[in-house]
Each structure stands twice: as structure tokens, then as C-alpha cells.
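Chain A, query sequence.
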Amino acid sequence: MTRPLLRRLAAVAATAGVLAGGLLGAAPAEAAVVTGTATAKTAIRGSAATKGAVVGTLERGQRIPTTKAASHGWVQVRFRDKTAYVASAALTTRTTKLPAAPRALGKGTRIATARLAVRDRAAGSGALVARIAEGASVKLTGTVTKGYAQTTVSGKERWVSTRYLAAPPAKPADAGARAVAFAKSQLGKPYQYGATGPKAYDCSGLTLSAWKAAGVTVPRTSQQQFGTGKKIAEADLRPGDLVFFYGKQPAHVAIYVGDGQVIHAPRAGKDVEYSKIAYMPFSGARRPG
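Chain A, predicted structure.
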């Protein structure tokens, strides 16, 4: 092998090393290959768009592996072994010591954004007793101190860094809010029997599409939707719930938006609109999810 070729290969290897180091960073004490740091609370999305499905959430100061530089306002990241995206305005790859938001890490399940060290006390100097795989679920007790969240491993209290714990996808209550937001965005579109959007809807086509936008699948027809989900009393309605009308086998369905109102696709010749529940004979309500 000639010397010029050897020099060329060495240069390529060196460049590759620089790129890998610049993109992924050196492995920090608590996890491997984590360089993107959230500068504010931000969503992790399944696609590079504000309408992309939310697959997780980072609090300010939390970190996640970046796999591609910012482009068109988005940074490509790795989350649960899949490609995901974070708005570039809310993520920095510079070295930073932004504190995580401990109050946001209450009791519940979080997702490890990197291979996570489990320690016997809330300190980086605590003994390493286990590791949690990147993308694995971590159940927290609700106790947070000094940047560490308490968890339980083999029946014993253990600690993990809050910097590598993303929130999982939204709960049904939040999904309901997203379903309502979708329904509101369809106001004024015409009724069309059998239509599920995006230009027109029938009643169940609108509710199906609204919950699909929230990441939840519901059946196609109003009768089928009436037979699924959790039964909800009228007094306990919350935004996103499906409200049914006209008899024991409901012929009409709408989506509850609060203050005794629904959004629905009424009938031929009408557009998607607001209406009061009291204007139609109430049959019942269901909460998808």
C-alpha cells in the first residue's frame, strides 16, 4: 500500500472520528451517547412537523441522542430505538448544565433516553448497582432530590439521573384535548355521508378522524363507537368524550368540547359546527382510550 493512500485512509478515519465525536459527544457519566439538551419543555415527535404524533416529552435540561444535525427547524434524534424529531429551537448540542425540572418528574412511568446508571444513592458517586437499557420504561416513586429520581429495583430504593428520563406519550385526557383541537380545525367543512375527511365528514367520520389525530383508534360508525370505550355520565363529561344522540341505538355522535357544547357534523346541507347537548336527545357518552 502506498504512503499517499495510507495518509488518505488516516485522514478519512480522523474525519470520521471528529464527526462521531461532534455529533454524538463523549459518553457522559450517567448514560451513553447523549448530547442534545432541551432548553425548554418540548415534545418528541414521530415526524418533523408540528402536527407529528407526540411520542414523548423532554423537560428543560433533559438529554437525548441526536442522530442528524438541525434541518428545516428540526433535529433528528433517537428515541426508543426509533428515529424521532425535536424542534431545533428547543434543543442544543452545546455543552450545558441546564437543570432538569424535578417537579415535573412525579410518580409514574418515564422512558430512559439512554443507557441509564442505577445507583444506591442520589449522587453521581453512589455505587453503580444496575443499568437500564435505552428506551426501557422506568417507574418512579415520586421522590426527586439533587437531580436524581427514586425508583425501585429488586424491591430496593435506587436512584437514576433525571437528565435521561423522558415522559411517555400523552395520557387519554391529553389525547382528548388533541381530539378537540382537531375537531375545531374542521369547523365549517361540509357534511357528506360516508366521508372521513379531510374535505368533508359525516358525524362518525368526524369523531373517528378527531381521535385518530390524537393517536387513538375508534370504530367507524356511531353505533360501533357507542359500544366501545368507557361509559361516562353526562355530569362527568370532559373535552374529547364522544356524546351520542337519538335512542338506544344512537344515530348520531358528536365530540364534547366543554361548557355543555359539542362539535358535530349534523346532516346533509349543513357544515361542521358547534351545538349545545341540550338541543338533541342525549343517549349516552363514551371516553375512548
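The domain at 172-287 is CATH 3.90.1720.10 (endopeptidase fold (from Nostoc punctiforme)). Helices lie at 3-24, 172-185, 203-213, 222-226.
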